[in-house]
């Protein structure tokens, strides 16, 4: 029996980076499964690279891709933005309104609540993707955002966390979830598990990601400088990506006299960037479940990463290889070791790739999330047809399951 098709609308503020990757893969998989899917995102954020991905997504989504201005910070303009979003979403008549990130999650839950008050059976689903959970609960900004999260908690029907770490962070900073909850890891496509070989002229190191301090490119640059101080020669490095602090990092490279060793490239697909260097460095200060770590491990590229967020869950029994976040000395030592013994790095990459769980797949990610949607709409496994062994509770296991409607929320 085919699961009942649903009308699903995803809402995310910034269509960039890993959050765009997650929404794109999820929406495409849901559309391919026969659901009507739409996407709403910010109209003032995103590079040509990001906009191209949105254009590629449009033909797959029957409910369209629409963009509205959405500020990152809380402003009075949020009132007019919410009204414009409400009118658009109301006309789409969604069964599921799925918010991604702090701002997208707030819009989805507030608008979904208004729709429910007007008699609609819209289920409100939220995935933080780190977002407000990255803030320090002891600082003013953190207290504000976590208070907002607590206010929105009773307006939430379904919660999806991309790692055990994110689930724990929500419980400690916001409170125990009241909604139906799942932990669902980000997923990759089968093609991404093919090994990538570096080019003959590959640089020593690659940083790829958002150019903002949270991701640690400043630490990467400083480690390169430290190596030059010790050896008299800076390693060759490539920095791939874009972000609000890009110009500051370029200035930092110039001031440290690293311009001859470090080059900046714009955003590009990860597997293309992997060919440009022998070792990938991800020096993040905070993460939830970073795609770039998954992509690097699946491509069997040597990797230096920090012990943040859900990264230890990816590394599994090799988590002892992760380094302390924000510790420039340990990052420098790890990069020196990579230069001194590249064969050991290749062997480590092969070991890590071999233990990458099947859990990290787009198919399973989409199935687990869509299963939560179906449960929210009163669907349960048909006797004798359930293919998975777990369908309830806060777990990450599961497989495609047949459902029948039993009633509406």
Automatic annotation (TrEMBL):
<dbReference type="Pfam" id="PF00534">
    <property type="entry name" value="Glycos_transf_1"/>
</dbReference>
<dbReference type="InterPro" id="IPR028098">
    <property type="entry name" value="Glyco_trans_4-like_N"/>
</dbReference>
<feature type="domain" description="Glycosyl transferase family 1">
    <location>
        <begin position="192"/>
        <end position="349"/>
    </location>
</feature>
<dbReference type="InterPro" id="IPR001296">
    <property type="entry name" value="Glyco_trans_1"/>
</dbReference>
<dbReference type="Pfam" id="PF13439">
    <property type="entry name" value="Glyco_transf_4"/>
</dbReference>
<feature type="domain" description="Glycosyltransferase subfamily 4-like N-terminal">
    <location>
        <begin position="16"/>
        <end position="189"/>
    </location>
</feature>
<protein>
    <submittedName>
        <fullName>Glycosyltransferase involved in cell wall bisynthesis</fullName>
    </submittedName>
</protein>
């Amino acid at each position: 029996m085919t699961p009942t098709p649903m009308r699903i609308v995803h809402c995310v503020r910034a269509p960039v980076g890993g959050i765009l990757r997650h929404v794109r893969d999820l929406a495409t998989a849901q559309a391919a499964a026969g659901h009507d899917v739409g996407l709403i995102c910010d109209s003032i954020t995103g590079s040509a690279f990001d906009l191209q991905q949105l254009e590629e997504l449009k033909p797959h989504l029957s409910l369209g891709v629409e963009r509205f201005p959405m500020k990152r910070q809380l402003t009075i303009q949020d009132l007019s933005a919410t009204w414009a979003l409400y009118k658009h979403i109301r006309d789409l008549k969604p069964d599921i309104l799925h918010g991604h990130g702090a701002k997208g999650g707030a819009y989805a839950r507030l608008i979904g609540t208004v729709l429910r008050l007007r008699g609609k059976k819209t289920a409100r689903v939220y995935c933080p993707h780190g977002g407000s959970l990255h803030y320090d609960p002891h600082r003013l900004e953190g207290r504000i955002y976590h208070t907002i999260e607590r206010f929105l908690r009773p307006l939430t029907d379904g919660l999806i966390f991309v790692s055990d770490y994110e689930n724990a962070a929500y419980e400690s900073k916001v409170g125990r979830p009241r909604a139906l909850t799942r932990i669902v890891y980000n997923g990759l496509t089968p093609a991404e598990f093919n090994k990538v070989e570096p080019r003959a002229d590959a640089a020593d190191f690659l940083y790829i990601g958002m150019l903002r301090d949270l991701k640690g490119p400043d630490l990467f640059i400083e480690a390169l400088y430290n190596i030059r101080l010790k050896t008299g020669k800076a390693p060759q490095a490539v920095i791939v990506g874009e972000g609000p602090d890009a110009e500051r990092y370029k200035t930092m490279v110039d001031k440290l006299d690293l311009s001859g060793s470090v080059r900046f490239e714009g955003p590009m697909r990860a597997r293309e960037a992997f060919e440009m260097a022998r070792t990938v460095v991800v020096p993040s200060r905070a993460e939830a479940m970073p795609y770039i770590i998954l992509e690097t491990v699946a491509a069997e590229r040597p990797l230096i990463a920090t012990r943040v967020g859900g990264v230890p869950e990816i590394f599994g029994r090799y988590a002892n290889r992760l380094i302390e976040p924000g510790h420039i000395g340990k990052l420098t030592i790890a990069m020196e070791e990579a230069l001194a013994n590249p064969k050991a790095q290749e062997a480590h990459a092969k070991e890590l790739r071999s233990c990458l769980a099947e859990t990290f797949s787009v198919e399973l990610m989409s199935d687990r999330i869509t299963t939560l949607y179906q449960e929210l709409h009163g669907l349960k496994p048909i006797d004798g047809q359930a293919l998975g062994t777990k369908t309830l509770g806060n777990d990450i296991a599961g497989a495609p399951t047949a459902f029948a409607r039993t009633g509406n929320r």
